[in-house]
Amino acid sequence: MNSLKRNGYDFCKWYKEPSACHDCALIGNQDNGWGKGIYKVKDVPTIPVHPNCRCAVGAYWVDKKNNLYETPNYNEQSEESGRVKKVQENNTAKLNRLFNSLNIKTAKVDDIIELGNAFNKEYNIRDNLEDKSYISNALSKYRDVGEDILEKSWAKGSNRQIKNDLKQAFSHYPKEWSEYLDDEYMLAGKDKDRGFYMRWYATPNGNTKTPTWLVRGNRLREGVTMDQYNKFGEDLHNGKYNSVYSTGKRKTTVWHEIGHFVEEHNKDTLRISKEFVSRRTKGEREVRLNEIFPGFGYKDNDVTLKDDFISPYIGKQYSDASEVLSIGLESIFEPGEGQLKSISKEYNFVKITEDEEYFNLILGILLKG
Question: Which residues of 33-45 are buried (b: 16+ CB within 10 A; e: fewer)?
Answer without folding.
Answer: eeeebbbebeebe
